[in-house]
Structure formats: C-alpha cells, structure tokens
C-alpha cells in the first residue's frame, strides 16, 4: 500500500496525458482503473494504470474525457494533476494536437517545445493556491522540465525511426483560450511574436504540474497550419481530424517504447531533480493567518510542505 495515499495501492512514476484523438493506450496491458476524488474534484477521466512490455507501469488519463466531453476551458486540470500526484507520479509526458505556425512544421510532425506564450483569458483556475489563505509564486521561466525534454529528444527520435515523422525541438507554443480557432490576423500576430505552434491545452496544465513538483513535458503533434497562410483555407476541426488518428497511433507507439526508460530515469532521480523540491522557496512563509483547512487541502499535492 502506498504510504501517503490511502486509496492507492500502486505507485506509478510516469504519467501520460492524452489529448484530442488519444483517449487510451490500448497497445499496453490494462492493469486497473482508479478514479481519485481530489480536493479539486474528479479528473477528466478515470486513470488507467497499464503495463508496458517489460513490466513498467504507466498512468494514463484522457484530458478531454474518454468521450471528449470537456472543452479546453473546462478541463479539470487541477484534479488531473492532483490525481496523478496521489498515485506517486513524478513526471508527466503530455500529448497535444497543435496547429503549426511554421511552414517547416508539417501536419503529422512531432515537436518538443521549450517555451509557452499564454493567451488564455483568466477563466481557468491556474493554481492550487487559488482560493486558499496561502500564497505561492512558482518559478516558470522554463515552463517545461528541461532535463526531461532533453531526455525525451533522443528517445522520441529513435521511437519515430522508420515512420516518416519529423521531430522538432526548441519551439514556442502559444496557448489560446478557444474554443473557436484564431482569426487570420491573430495567427499572423503569433508568428510575429515568435510562436511556432498553437493549442488550447498546455496551460494551466504545465503551471499546475510545476506547483505540484511534477516534471512535465509536452509532445506536440501537428495537425494543421492554423490560419496564417495567405492562399490556404483557415483551419477547421475536420482538417484537424484528418491527422488525429495517425498521430494518436504514433503517440501510442512512442509511449510504449519510451516508458521503461522514463520510469528508470524518474526512479534514479536526475531528470526530475530541477522540479522536485522546487516549491520550497516559492511558498510565502508560514503565518498564523494561514488556515489549517487550506494547509490540509494543499498537503494532497505538496505533502512535504503541508502535512502536519
Ligand atoms: C480538436 S482541435 C482543438 C483542440 O485540440 C487540442 O487538444 P489537445 O491539446 O487536448 O490535444 C487543442 O489544444 C484543442 O483543445
Ligand atoms: N490551429 C489550432 N489552434 C488551436 N488549437 C489547435 N489544436 C490543433 N490545431 C489547433
């Protein structure tokens, strides 16, 4: 039995979030499903614990729900990250269907971005500390876990060998509110700002993972050219759907091949070392004004600092 979380008999170090089109990892062996009740509610889908060849466990959840019922603005991101934390997850690889803002990033290509431009509109709860009597300011200059991203690069590249899928790195993703796609003017503006990709999901997910001290990386899978190309149609959902199925199949294949190495690296500790412990100096010092009930709530994601 896990020491920390009474509902959970499993400790799974690697979490995978599936985005649009990726609703299961049915290439792996199903072990069990769990559906934790977190202080922020239930996750978008039950979490599937699956076994990769060789026996490594991985925890999977579908960001929009298994039947894609949550629009990007209503994804219960706090519950999702908290649920992973309660299972002992130390690193998350999140997949996302993205629009490409650059000619060289083609639909079907995979990308490991390293920066984010936030164009969400403040309607998504973006902090575990929101609504509590405790204040924290997480470091977010490097929004993805640098060591994890570097670790993934070689492994994802090898996993893609023979598939005619290019892997790009060092790119900037714009996260917009949606659910409507961008105007042509916005799409061009994001390019001028230095954006290379666009989605509606990486925030607040990446921020919450950082607050929970879980190392987080995004594998962006390009589906379309958004709306910046002069003589092309602007993006439609049906255009996105064309590549979703192939991208999802490739994402499952990549996950199967990298999960054992990720687990070993998480256990060894080096690739998660920058995020583990990172909240220590981000939380404002304890005061008698901090409520016990808030400390209790936060202990679900940060037991090191808030367990009594
Ligand atoms: C179906 S197109 C827009 C939708 O797809 C992406 O979802 P996800 O990141 O979960 O793969 C994008 O962020 C939007 O939510
Ligand atoms: N063009 C686009 N804009 C925002 N999110 C997306 N997800 C996939 N394509 C997208």
TrEMBL record:
Phosphate binds at residues 20, 63-64, 96-97, 201. It catalyses: S-methyl-5'-thioadenosine + phosphate = 5-(methylsulfanyl)-alpha-D-ribose 1-phosphate + adenine. The record marks 182, 237 as: Important for substrate specificity. One of its GO terms (biological process) is L-methionine salvage from methylthioadenosine. Pathway: Amino-acid biosynthesis; L-methionine biosynthesis via salvage pathway; S-methyl-5-thio-alpha-D-ribose 1-phosphate from S-methyl-5'-thioadenosine (phosphorylase route): step 1/1. Keywords: Cytoplasm, Glycosyltransferase, Nucleus, Purine salvage, Transferase. It is found in: Cytoplasm; Nucleus. GO terms for molecular function: S-methyl-5-thioadenosine phosphorylase activity. It is an enzyme of class 2 (transferase). GO terms for cellular component: cytosol; nucleus. Residues 14-256 form the Nucleoside phosphorylase domain. The keyword Magnesium does not apply. It comes from the Eukaryota. Its EC number is 2.4.2.28. InterPro entries: MTAP, Nucleoside_phosphorylase_d, Nucleoside_phosphorylase_sf, Purine_phosphorylase-2_CS. Substrate binds at residues 200, 224-226. Homotrimer. Catalyzes the reversible phosphorylation of S-methyl-5'-thioadenosine (MTA) to adenine and 5-methylthioribose-1-phosphate. Involved in the breakdown of MTA, a major by-product of polyamine biosynthesis. Responsible for the first step in the methionine salvage pathway after MTA has been generated from S-adenosylmethionine. Has broad substrate specificity with 6-aminopurine nucleosides as preferred substrates. Belongs to the PNP/MTAP phosphorylase family. MTAP subfamily. This is S-methyl-5'-thioadenosine phosphorylase. It comes from Phellinidium pouzarii.
